[in-house]
């Protein structure tokens, strides 16, 4: 279920600075739901003016992120996605909520993500201490 979240600007932001739109998506932690994550990211990236090539890069990076999160197996529980839409960029944060606890990222999966998805993205950060991932793609590095 996609839920728009209003992030009202705080008083310190300038009148010209627009806060990102935030959309939350919680999916069952199984491979078949990866399609929904990819399609959501692609649709939101297109809304932000990313080129078709950049959208394809983001879709591939979403696949690799889900492979990293799931560790090549389905889990009970969910993966929460937070999409932040800037003027010409999309950022996605992945938070696993597995019934059996947070995943441990295998070294080969971390390497695979870094080598395959890293060059496709504007930026990414993996926090192994909480098993989370944040990635971003902008129109300027398409």
Q: How would you describe this structure to a colleague?
A:
The chain has 142 residues and is an alpha+beta fold. It has one domain (20-141): Histidine kinase-like ATPase, C-terminal domain (Heat Shock Protein 90), CATH 3.30.565. The chain contains three helices and six strands; from the N terminus they run E-E-H-H-E-E-H-E-E. The protein has helices at 34-47, 52-70, 107-116, and strands spanning 2-5, 21-28, 77-85, 89-98, 123-127, 132-138. The chain is globular. The chain starts with a strand and ends with a strand. The model has no long low-confidence stretch (mean pLDDT 89).
In terms of topology, how is this protein built?
Layout: E1 2-5, E2 21-28, H1 34-47, H2 52-70, E3 77-85, E4 89-98, H3 107-116, E5 123-127, E6 132-138
CATH H-level name... which superfamily? Answer: Histidine kinase-like ATPase, C-terminal domain
Helix proportion range: 25-40%
Rg computed from alpha carbons, rounded to a whole number of angstroms: 15 Å
Overall pLDDT metric? 89
**Strand order in the largest sheet:** 1-2-3-4-6-5
Instruction: Choose one word for the global shape.
Output: globular
